[in-house]
């Protein structure tokens, strides 16, 4: 029997979507790397026009509050990712990131700097939790490992950005250019599709098919088999979750 063989899926849209999603991790790297160039400026009180001069102990707290805030991020992702989707949860991280950078530009008290850094940590924790989730769900298994490596690459890019720019600008200008990073991520990522796994889990099959068609560069007929496989996986996961819940209920 003759027939047209199935065209292999294109990897370019997947690389493009994974790169755009992981631009959020540049924000995380910039947030964590900001402390190094900002610390001497805050301790000297020169580049911030002398409105505040901090001790080394106070600036060490500024550095540690971002990792502390990142503990909250994954909890929020757990609440949001299955409700509004992986894509919009990732875009939501722009909100706390922007709020914190704006605070760092305008606040003039140590306590508010602490608050800003803690809020920025929440954004960092969310990015680390949801970016791998999105990339893992849009990628084919043959390139999933390669796309997963983008996270660390772009985190380091964020660090490098701060280390290269920070020494040559004032404290205020450093906060301004750092605040541009999440904006650039949002503009770059907003037009990319949602995770097909999430869309199918919410019963939005047609949207999932369109997302998969774009990500694979294939027709509806060509992605049908993968759609069916994803549905089976979701069904098995739901069944396993239900059985585990019943087992726990019986033990009580």
Automatic annotation (TrEMBL):
<feature type="transmembrane region" description="Helical">
    <location>
        <begin position="12"/>
        <end position="34"/>
    </location>
</feature>
<dbReference type="InterPro" id="IPR050549">
    <property type="entry name" value="MFS_Trehalose_Transporter"/>
</dbReference>
<feature type="domain" description="Major facilitator superfamily (MFS) profile">
    <location>
        <begin position="17"/>
        <end position="252"/>
    </location>
</feature>
<dbReference type="Pfam" id="PF00083">
    <property type="entry name" value="Sugar_tr"/>
</dbReference>
<keyword id="KW-0812">Transmembrane</keyword>
<dbReference type="GO" id="GO:0022857">
    <property type="term" value="F:transmembrane transporter activity"/>
</dbReference>
<dbReference type="GO" id="GO:0016020">
    <property type="term" value="C:membrane"/>
</dbReference>
<dbReference type="InterPro" id="IPR036259">
    <property type="entry name" value="MFS_trans_sf"/>
</dbReference>
<feature type="transmembrane region" description="Helical">
    <location>
        <begin position="143"/>
        <end position="161"/>
    </location>
</feature>
<feature type="transmembrane region" description="Helical">
    <location>
        <begin position="112"/>
        <end position="131"/>
    </location>
</feature>
<dbReference type="InterPro" id="IPR005828">
    <property type="entry name" value="MFS_sugar_transport-like"/>
</dbReference>
<feature type="transmembrane region" description="Helical">
    <location>
        <begin position="173"/>
        <end position="192"/>
    </location>
</feature>
<dbReference type="InterPro" id="IPR020846">
    <property type="entry name" value="MFS_dom"/>
</dbReference>
<keyword id="KW-0472">Membrane</keyword>
<feature type="transmembrane region" description="Helical">
    <location>
        <begin position="61"/>
        <end position="81"/>
    </location>
</feature>
<keyword id="KW-1133">Transmembrane helix</keyword>
<feature type="transmembrane region" description="Helical">
    <location>
        <begin position="88"/>
        <end position="106"/>
    </location>
</feature>
<dbReference type="InterPro" id="IPR005829">
    <property type="entry name" value="Sugar_transporter_CS"/>
</dbReference>
<protein>
    <recommendedName>
        <fullName>Major facilitator superfamily (MFS) profile domain-containing protein</fullName>
    </recommendedName>
</protein>
